[in-house]
Amino acid sequence: MIKKELLLQNPLRFIGDETEDILPGGGFGAVLARAGVGKTALLVQLALHTLLKGKYVLHISLDDPVNKISLWYKEVFRHLTKSYDAKNTNKLWEDLLPHRFIMTFKVEGFSVPKLEERLTDLKEQNIFSPQMVLIDGFHFNESARTSLSEFKRLAKNHSLHVWFSVKTHRHEKHGPGGMPSSLSDVSDLFDIVIQLRPEGKKIHVMTLKGGPADSNRPALFLDPATMLVKDNS
Amino acid sequence: MKNAINKVRNIGISAHIDSGKTTLTERILFFTKRIHAIHDVKGKDGVGATMDSMDIEKERGITIASAATYCEWLGHEINIIDTPGHVDFTIEVERSLRVLDGAILILCAVGGVQSQSITVDQQMKRYNVPCIAFINKCDRSGANPFRVIDQLKEKLGHNAVTLQIPIGLEGDLEGVVDLVSMKAVYFDGANGEDVRIENIPQDLLQEALQRREDLIDEASMFSDQLTEAVLEEQEITQDMIISAVRMGTLTRKLTPVFMGSAYKNKGVQPLLDAVTKLLPCPYDVKNEALDMNNDETPVILSGELEKPLVALAFKLEEGQYGQLTYIRVYQGSLSKGDNIVNARNGKKIKVGRLVRMHADQMEDIETIPAGYIGALFGIDCASGDTFVGPGLNMTMTSMFVPEPVISLAIFPKDNASQINMSKALNRFSKEDPTFRIYVDDETKETIIEGMGELHLEVYVERMHREYTAEVTTGQPRVAYRETITRKGEFDYTHKKQTGGAGQYGRVAGYMEPVTETELVFENKIVGGKIPTQFIPSCEKGFRQCMKKGPKMEFPVTGIKVVINDGASHSVDSSDMAFMAAARGAFREGYFKAGPVTHEPIMKVAVETPSEFQGAVMGLLNQRRGIIVGSQDEGPLCVVEARVPLAEMFGFSTVLRSSTQGKAQFTMELGSYKQVPESIAQELAKKAETEKKGK
């Protein structure tokens, strides 16, 4: 069973409780990093592990077209299953696909009511009903709080686990706990905040907020070649 | 030819059906003195418009095949490629878009941006074709060009800016105000051929000034000189505005809008002026070819006359004097008597007659230089072929031709139709590489294959119209395939002793699935258990089985056969016997190897106004489709899905009716996938009843 093995391999389980989802229903998670460090790659890994559990994932991108997102999934999946027989992994990939739905919006065209309308439509027609939602490319600006609060309501209503990618900037000021200023105003809405920080040739995966208090858990790194999470240095 | 490449325009005219595309072309030809009388599309004189040379086009008033025609205006040479306005003929459209450098997008002043305009616009965007817009039919009641401009902005996302305003509208349309020269333009004479320039009528002056302001505002984004002039309140010359607008147009960041009524002969001459002033010459456009010697790496063609020839055959036409091949030369030049090579098959060709086309009349010329469009006579080639000078190995189009996914049996009604049908089929298959023909060995039926239901329907219709071939068609069939899923062993003895020479052969071994190839045959026989001379017969026997699978009679793919044991008889073994043994062995092993049926899964992209997104997803979902995602693009939205071809029959009709005709879809072959068990059973049942029927 590739599925089981892949699930067991999931290094992200160290971030949260081993058996439970990292986020509660209606909870928000954020992945912070500068451009090009691996936010999308990490989100896609989170999504793939959720897909492997047989759950449904809605991936919303505000920058990239559907094809590009698809490609991300294919690439990450290919790296994850490199050591397995191609025939079986193809079958697994085919099985996962119907569980994933990609929606892309133009940044200015995206709004929570619009998304809610789409979601209801999909649910009513019995086409797709996600348990996890990824939002890639959301702009954390002054007006973000209003839409995020709306989003929170939506997530709670539908019991969704929502992950955001947050682009940080080199010169950005940091608030308490290393939280960048773009997020510090709204950090109360988030249950877990993960930061990707390049350190030499590796990318360190750090939790800024949330996660278990256990300080003994191993440090996590992203392998820059594959963008996969590794659990030991 | 005058060889001044900056004075050449290769343009297309694209539009929604019935927005007056052919009428406009006709008027352009009239004003450029290529024709001397005007025949309307659906005119009463029965002559029809000059551009629609195919009967079906004249009758229906639509243009199917793109005829290229040539005219001159203000010292510029203009080649007009009349592009089809129908989505169904995408190969035609895409080929025409390939050869043109700029386009006029016609919009109806009443209908505005219609669904078809959206598709056509998408295609132009894909090929990065700069365009200017012409709002036609301003004489119709309900005409409102400014509403159309707003729609251009909202629905198509163009940065549309008008260069004209109408003088009067609907029945009172008299002419236009040119916002660049700030003059009123009227069109006098029986056919509007006398252009009269006057001062702007007082009642329009205020509006004209306001709109000119807007125009300069938008145009200044593309020219520092103009911006400076505006800021320093210097005099703004016409040239400054024109060159700024041209900059914006070439980069597709600005869409200049013109207006008038082709039918009433108003506004056509200023549009022609704009074609010469604003649309690119061949030199402004970057063209790429693929270097075949270098793994199809793209190479940019320079357009220099001294370099070796690269030319693309973009359309074939069967005329009364034989095959006419329309070509566009991208690099070098093509002259009478030149030796050229067809890059697809390496055949050398000597250029005979060269002509320049004007719808269905022609004019002999000596040479076609880079950037020009012309036609060759009597050359045997297919549409999309690239011609190159000796020593080059480049192609303008990728050699990849997708396999057909759907087939249809056609039956001629009588003998005459039979003859005409074969003529038609011969030509169509040359024109369109995705259209194929074969005769079924068993049923002796003629089968046509293509990329979709509509694709084949169009050809059947054309057979009827152009070749008077009366044909009836069978049900469309999906190109299913069979393959195996696990290893299966065989050990088969073919033995026959019924008087005369006997037959004997034993073949043993196994078969297993492989990917990406049809059949791999491996001989692991040791000790001469099957004599070497019979091994090819064994392979032949296995190969024969691939055409029709033992399970459902679909072609078989992805099988590796290994033979490792066997037996022969000194007298009774023969090629025939081993072929028969191999066929038997194949059947035996095949059924043990878990045979399954695969079906083509299409990549479907539906482009729909956002309000119908839910409905479209519902439709796709009902058809065993997996929705990959949805892409929001302002007012429009694209839903991408993977749907089995078998479920796509009749989709265009259903889609049209559930979206008020506003959605369009394209599909192409994605992959082959195993048919679900329930469907496989249905297929088996169907095959069974068909067998009984035979």
In short:
Chain A has 233 residues and is an alpha/beta fold. Chain A has 7 helices and 9 strands, in the order αβαβααβαβαβαββββ. Chain A has one domain (2-230): Rossmann fold.
Report on this structure.
- The complex is a heterodimer of chains A (233) and B (694).
- Chain A has 233 residues and is of the alpha/beta class.
- Chain A is globular.
- Chain A is 34% helix and 22% strand.
- Chain A has a nine-stranded mixed β-sheet with strand order 3-2-4-5-1-6-7-8-9, with helices on one face.
- Chain A has helices spanning 2-9, 39-52, 66-80, 86-96, 112-124, 144-158, 181-184, and strands at 28-34, 57-61, 100-104, 132-136, 161-168, 192-199, 202-209, 220-222, 229-230.
- Chain A has seven helices and nine strands, in the order αβαβααβαβαβαββββ.
- Chain B has 694 residues and is of the alpha+beta class.
- Chain B folds into five domains: 5-284, 3-Layer(aba) Sandwich (Rossmann fold), CATH 3.40.50; 287-395, Translation factors (Elongation Factor Tu (Ef-tu), domain 3, Beta Barrel), CATH 2.40.30; 406-477, Alpha-Beta Plaits (2-Layer Sandwich); 486-593, Ribosomal Protein S5, domain 2, CATH 3.30.230.10; 599-679, Alpha-Beta Plaits (2-Layer Sandwich), CATH 3.30.70.240.
- In chain B, 28% of the residues lie in helices and 33% in strands.
- In chain B, the strands form eight sheets. In chain B, strands 18-17-23-14-15-22-19-20 form an eight-stranded antiparallel β-sheet. In chain B, strands 2-3-1-4-5-11-6 form a seven-stranded mixed β-sheet, with helices on both faces.
- In chain B, strand 2 and strand 3 form a beta hairpin.
- Residues 56-66 of chain B have low confidence and may be disordered.
- Chains A and B meet through helix 3, strand 3 and helix 5 of A and helix 14, strand 36 and strand 37 of B.
- Strand 3 of chain A pairs parallel with strand 36 (626-633) of chain B, so a sheet runs across the interface.
